[in-house]
Amino acid sequence: MNDELVHLEVSGGTATVTLDSPRNRNALSAQVRRELSAHLDTATLDEAVRVIVLTHTGPVFCSGMDLRESRGAGSDDQGVNEFPAILSTLWTSDTPVIARVAGPARAGGVGLVAACDIAVAAREATFAFTEVRVGVVPAVISSVVLPRLLPRAGSELMLTGETFDATRAEAVGLINSAVDADGLDAEVARYADMLARGGPRALAATKALLRRDRGEHLQQDLEAMLGLSAEFFASEEGQEGMAAFAEKRAPSWVPDQR
């Protein structure tokens, strides 16, 4: 029995990395993070790979960090500690990366989408920065999300935690294309074909050019944000938020509407 939760398949110059933990809404558990990191490293180092596609099984793209693992853990033990390297690999890889999003993305899952060079989503897909609603901060993902979003949209969506659809995600710059579900694979293939037509060294140099002003210090920024994120995951507020989420109740700071 194969217990792997992230799969890598290489065919025709395209490496497909698939999140396959649908029972856990493809949450970024320790195993998922470990396998995702390993497969991304393998794909980016393979000279035969011209394009990487990050996709998923099940109805949810990625629900973010596995809050069950974060409950009760101190700031040095939080799963977010391993997440910056994954975002950095997606952002800085010489090989272009396409996110294929057929379902909801939340919190860290939105960070994965933002870190990819191209993002295509089914119109039915939804997005949300849910961190503040469980008492934590979208700190680490802000390093890759904020360069994508319109500033006003970033303020609104990160502060409110509101769920928004793929059409809005396209309008504010989070994704490149929102399409009907039955056209998702064709749109991903269209982008993959165009990317494969570029020279590998030229694509790598162009990616470096695109990030030179805002992403050149990504690693330092991710490290700075890591401490803030881990602090809130371990904080009293963060633990209360995660407990409320698990218990399907409102956190203590939400006003009683009765």
Automatic annotation (TrEMBL):
InterPro entries: ClpP/crotonase-like_dom_sf, Enoyl-CoA_hydra/iso, Enoyl-CoA_hydra_C, Enoyl-CoA_Hydratase/Isomerase. It comes from the Bacteria. Signal peptide: none annotated. Belongs to the enoyl-CoA hydratase/isomerase family. This is Enoyl-CoA hydratase-related protein. It comes from Actinomycetospora chibensis.
